[in-house]
Amino acid sequence: MTNRYAVVLAAGQGTRMKSKLYKVLHPVCGKSMVEHVIDQVSALELHKIVTIIGFGAELVKSTLGDRSEYALQEEQLGTAHAVMQASPQLKQEKGTTLVICGDTPLITTETMEALLKHHEETNAKATILTAHAEDPTGYGRIIRQSNGDVKRIVEHKDASEEERTVKEINTGTYCFDNEALFQALDKVSNDNVQGEYYLPDVIEILKNEGETVSAFQTERFAETLGVNDRVALAQAEKTMRERINRQHMVNGVTIIDPSNTYISAETIIGSDTTILPGTTLLGKTEIGTDCIIGPNSEIKDCRIGNQTTIRQSVAHNSSIGSEVAIGPFAHIRPDSQISDEVKIGNFVEVKKASFGKGSKASHLSYIGDAKVGADVNLGCGSITVNYDGKRKFETIIEDGAFVGCNSNLIAPVTIGKNAYVAAGSTINNNVPEEALSIARARQTNKENYAKRLKSKE
Ligand code: UD1
Ligand code: MG
User: Fold this and answer.
1) Ion ligand 2 — residues with CB under 5 Å?
2) CA torsion, points 264, 270, 271, 274, in degrees to nearest 10?
3) What is the pTM of this model?
4) Which end of the chain is more exposed for a tag (fewer CB within 10 A), N or C?
């Protein structure tokens, strides 16, 4: 089999994005565009992948890690110049080289595989992946000869009025015979409107040398979207979102309103889980089976067990067990561990706290910097007083403890096993195991006070 290589172009700044963030690092459904491309390219099992980096080189490198080799393009002189930077890694090689832009996040392995197959079967020196675009504005156009053969690609900015009416576009993905590619790159000039060395010019160069160049038109135009500005970014996001949601549904997840459900590329969801409208699942979130999530919940980087319900709530960077009930209107802040069968109810905020199995904070509480054991009941309005304005302190509530309503637990403090805290207490000393602590003013009733007051008046 022919050796296969890939060059991913990712050195550009992306001026049209008008952003501090380099273009290929802009996320689509939570994953950077260039990562989407590398993920799909990696599945092709190539001999070598070389990513061309320039703007944000170190960031792109740390994003992709060892999934690619790198070549630095110090000055962004155009896409042909970018590919040339891979000479040290590729120039000597024999085989097929796939070139793909880092700003086409929707392209799939299947489409690239079909392109490679077509290229190798037709024995062409170059094959362009093309698509029919209803609105081809901005793309390079495929100019064909009268016999239908590809003649050249003309960039939108360089195209004549007539050429601009062509709706067959260059998707920016190509296959080349590696040796033909590198010898042609040397001949590319920058005599064009943008003063850049255009990779598409290689097509005309090879054609003029009498080589076979061909085009492979994909039916899947949506996959070929090149993201140059935020409008296209939103389009890519929408298409990717539909693709992700569809895959979850195929896998057995119920999504009540897919057009209103936002799931990151790296989220994993078990079967028979239902995602209700307005829900956003971000980062590397993992949700088990038979859960109900939403409506209107935001979950980021959480691991959630099975048969758990999270309603109208926010949870970040935490682990949440099975058969847990959260919400409505709860906030689970980072570094929290919620064990199985826990209940975190309305208007409860949890921060950097662990809850043992079966514990409950059902209403209106703040539990921060705390270790809550198993089968603990935190009554309505239980508050951990964890902050003195400078430092944070820990509250420990041991198994089986019962904290009455509206109690302040001033940390550092420990409530012992099976201990009771009377409602309305402000606790600033440890409570021993099995004890009852009452820390509030004793009630005095003044008999007939109201009557006496009235008679005075
Ligand atoms: C490019 C193609 C165009 C095609 C379109 C498809 C050229 C000249 N034009 O246009 O025919 O229809 O893609 O989306 O190739 N890059 C570098 N170094 C550079 C310049 C660019 O690495 O010096 C990278 C960019 O980071 C980007 C990719 O190459 O990922 C494409 O560059 P971009 O400026 O987006 O080209 P388009 O104008 O979209
Ligand atoms: Mg582009």
Assistant:
1) 103, 226, 228
2) -60
3) 0.93
4) C
